[in-house]
Amino acid sequence: MANVVEVKKDIYWVGAIDWNIRDFHGYSTKRGSTYNAYLVVDEKITLFDVVKRPFVSDLVHHLIKVLGDPQKVDYIVVNHVEMDHSGGLPELIERIRPEKVFCSPMGYRGLIEHFHDKAKDWPLVEVKTGDRLSLGRRTVQFLETRMIHWPDSMVSYLPEDKILISQDAFGQHYATSGRFDDEVDFSKLMQESAKYYANIVLPFSPQVQKLLQTVEEMGLEIEMILPDHGVIWRSRLKDILEAYRRWSSYEARALAVVCYATMWQSTEKMALAIADGLMAEGVEVKVMNAGIDHRSDIMTQLLEAKGLVVGSSTLNNNMLPQMADILTYIKGLRPRQKIAAAFGSYGWSGEAVKHMNKYLEDMKAKLVHQGLRVKFVPTHEQLKECRELGIQIAKAIKEDLANAQ
Ligand SMILES: Cc1cc2nc3c(=O)[nH]c(=O)nc-3n(C[C@H](O)[C@H](O)[C@H](O)COP(=O)(O)O)c2cc1C
Question: Where do the domains of the chain lie, and which CATH numbers do they carry?
Answer without folding.
Answer: 5-249 (3.60.15.10), 253-404 (3.40.50.360)
